[in-house]
Amino acid sequence: MLKINSHDGPARLGQWKERITPTVIDYKEIEIVKNIATPFKIQKEIAQEYTQQTINLAQEEKNKKK
C-alpha cells in the first residue's frame, strides 16, 4: 500500500513498502484501486459526490490489501 504523508497537487510524499517517496516505482508491481478522479478546484457538492463514489468502490473491492 502506498502511504501518503502529505501532498501538494500531483506530488506525493510518503512510503511504499521500504521506499520513501517520491521515488521511481515499477507500476507493474502495484495493484491499482479504482477511484473517481477529482479536479482540484470544483464545487463542494461535486467533491462530496466523487468522494462517496470512491468510498463505495473501496467497500466493494474484494482485495482489501489494495
Structure overview:
- By secondary structure, the chain is of the alpha+beta class.
- It has 2 domains: 1-30, no CATH class; 33-66.
- The protein is 26% helix and 24% strand.
- The chain has 1 helix and 3 strands; from the N terminus they run E-E-E-H.
- It has one helix at 44-60, and strands at 2-8, 11-16, 19-21.
- Strands 1-2-3 form a 3-stranded antiparallel β-sheet, with no helix packed on it.
- A hairpin with a 2-residue loop joins strand 1 and strand 2 (11-16).
Structure summarized in a few sentences:
The protein is α+β, with helices and mostly antiparallel strands and 66 residues long.
What labels would you give this structure?
66 residues; alpha+beta; 2 domains
Topology, please?
Blueprint: E1 2-8, E2 11-16, E3 19-21, H1 44-60
Count of distinct strands: 3
Rg estimate, integer Å: 14 Å
Helix/strand order, N-terminal first: EEEH
Bulk shape: flat
- Category by helix and strand content: alpha+beta
Overall pLDDT score: 79
Individual helix count: 1
List low-pLDDT spans: none
Fraction of helical residues: 25-40%
Number of domains: 2
First-to-last CA distance: 6 Å
Question: How would you characterize the largest beta sheet?
Answer: 3 strands, antiparallel
Sequence of strands across the biggest β-sheet: 1-2-3
Strand content: 15-25%
